[in-house]
Structure to design on (176 residues):
């Protein structure tokens, strides 16, 4: 007599569990991508603050490139497919464009400096001005980096509904 009802409850419980598992997996992937992005952007900060970009250029150099692998993976992964992630996606695309352009400019400058025989003091001075001058490449890329890091800090600091619920719930007590 109750067998169909019990069977229906079992099916509904299974579907609910499946949906909850998918949501949890999506949230876990999203958090992993967010922390990976923050780690890569910390490496970018270290590179931009390194001696190669902050000291005076007095000779030909090969500059370190800014990494983009976590940003590329984040854009491809689909971890930010919700409507609330539109601003982050826009910033990630702009960051990818700016960083690609920055790395390309470094490559072109290095090719020019190493291909020109003889003294290149004027070229080095021009490059230094373009790189670190007011509104130069270095300033622009650091501005984009700061924007992106602020958004990511907000997103990784947000508690999830589950963690909020668990924090608000009193701890179980055992009564004897």
């Amino acid at each position: 007599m109750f067998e169909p009802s019990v069977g229906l409850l079992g099916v509904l419980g299974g579907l609910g569990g499946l949906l909850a598992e998918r949501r949890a997996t999506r949230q876990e992937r999203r958090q992993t991508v967010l922390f990976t992005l923050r780690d890569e952007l910390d490496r970018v900060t270290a590179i931009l603050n390194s001696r190669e970009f902050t000291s005076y250029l007095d000779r030909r150099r090969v500059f370190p490139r800014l990494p983009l692998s976590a940003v590329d993976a984040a854009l491809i992964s689909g971890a930010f497919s919700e409507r609330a992630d539109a601003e982050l996606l826009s910033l990630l695309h702009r960051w990818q464009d700016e960083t690609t352009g920055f790395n390309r400019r470094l490559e072109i400058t290095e090719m020019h400096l190493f291909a020109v025989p003889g003294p290149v003091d004027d070229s080095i001075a021009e490059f230094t001005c373009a790189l670190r001058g007011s509104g130069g490449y270095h300033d622009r890329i650091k501005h984009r980096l700061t924007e992106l890091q602020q958004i990511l800090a907000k997103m990784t600091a947000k508690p999830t509904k589950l963690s909020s619920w668990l924090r608000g719930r009193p701890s179980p007590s055992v009564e004897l």
Q: What stands out?
A: Residues 3-48 form the longest helix (46 residues). Helices lie at 3-48, 51-54, 69-77, 86-115, 121-132, 137-157, 161-168.
